[in-house]
Fold this protein.
Amino acid sequence: MDTAILQRLVAEIEAFYEHPSAVSPNVTAETIRKHLQSFDFQQPIELNNLFEEVCQMMRHWNVQISHPRYFGLFNPAPTLSAIVAEALVAAYNPQMAAWSHAPAANEIERHTLHYVARKIGLLSPQEARPSEVLAANFTAGGSEANHTAVLVAMAHHFPETLEEGLLVLAKQPVFYVSELAHNSFDKIAKHVGLGLRALRAVPVDYDLKMDVEALQMMIAQDIAQGFAPFMVVGTAGVTSCGVIDPLPALAAICQKHQLWLHIDGAWGGAAAFSPTLKPFLKGIEMADSVTIDAHKWFNLTMGAGMFLTRHPQANANAFKVRADYMPVSEEDVAVPYLTTMQWSRRFIGLKMFMTMAETGEENFAKIIDHQTAMGAYFRQKITAAGWQIVNDTPLPVVNFTHPELVARGVAPDTVLEELYAEQQLWISSVTLRGQKVFRMCITNFKTTEADVDFLVERLGKV
Ligand SMILES: *Cc1c(COP(=O)(O)O)cnc(C)c1O
């Protein structure tokens, strides 16, 4: 094997890791498509040349989410151990579908997921038989984990539908999310056959948290009208504004009405790993199931989500099948093809295992706390500069607006167009309480005060 290309790969990774290119691209689809015309897959291209071509495109024609001034959408800069893990997974390419094909990979994932489950309180440290009280698996991302949650909650509440389908039910199942919940639930409502109307959007309070009284009224009304409520989704770290729904209150309501409590902590779930932030997630330990993305605040490469539930039986019922061409497995192992949505499965969990092992719990908490501190630093600087913050969260997402911009009728998106064209930083906009505002998030562990100062200074000129 000619390994020269591998040396170049290492050099490119090294160079990019230290110096990501311009934050945002300035390119049209037409330019890229025209360029791609020369790749017609007819004449083979020498790998060294191909490598150069691909690097050029990746460097210049993507938003660089690894850049310390990408204040974006929960997309992290990956750790070095995550990049190494990805390379190892590609090289070894274990097939995880059956435990017996990849005992090492499966057990590494199980070990890591049990650690996560203990950190969020779904598994007690003394538990001698964890697989009897917990099912957990890595997913492609938060959407798949949320989708899994709805399927398992349905298997738990309406087991007869696994054989007979939804039409066997006398009452229409309905479930509840905050109106600011992630829109993956819209897709999921359609995909599980419940339909969008079965997804009840609960209004938020003035502080943008799910309004608990409204939730209670909606449940009561649905029951009175002959619907079958089965699930409430609380978000821990709303995508647009970072707020955490009142999880203990949601847990109490779910207990009262025997509903499944799912907590979507795709981004914010990582806060459980910081002793400072953990109290804000109180209630997560009462969840029936939890989503946490590993490719968000754990600083890992995409795609890596985690799904955890304290109902292994419902989980098994939701996914079990019989396939006589698959290898038979031993007892007490989670066999991914029998317990998850995917069949052939990539070794997703290695980057989480390696990153946690290399970083260590205490240092990982420091990384989380550093990002939180950078968020607080931005809040302080931007308010001092006359801007108004319109969200309230301990997590590093800041929504803000300026009364003068509003008075001048300047839309945030007009400002964003200018910023993107300069390619020096990346923030976004979102609508909260009917008003378009800016959104920034500290989503890179390498972001420093100097990067935040850069942003504040540039905003001072709009
Ligand atoms: C990002 C996000 C999701 C979706 O996760 P993906 O990994 O993008 O599939 C779900 N819920 C919340 C709250 C999110 O922030």
About this structure: The radius of gyration is 23 Å. Residues 74, 141-143, 146, 182, 184, 235, 239, 264, 266-267, 293, 305 surround pyridoxal-5'-phosphate (CB under 6 Å).
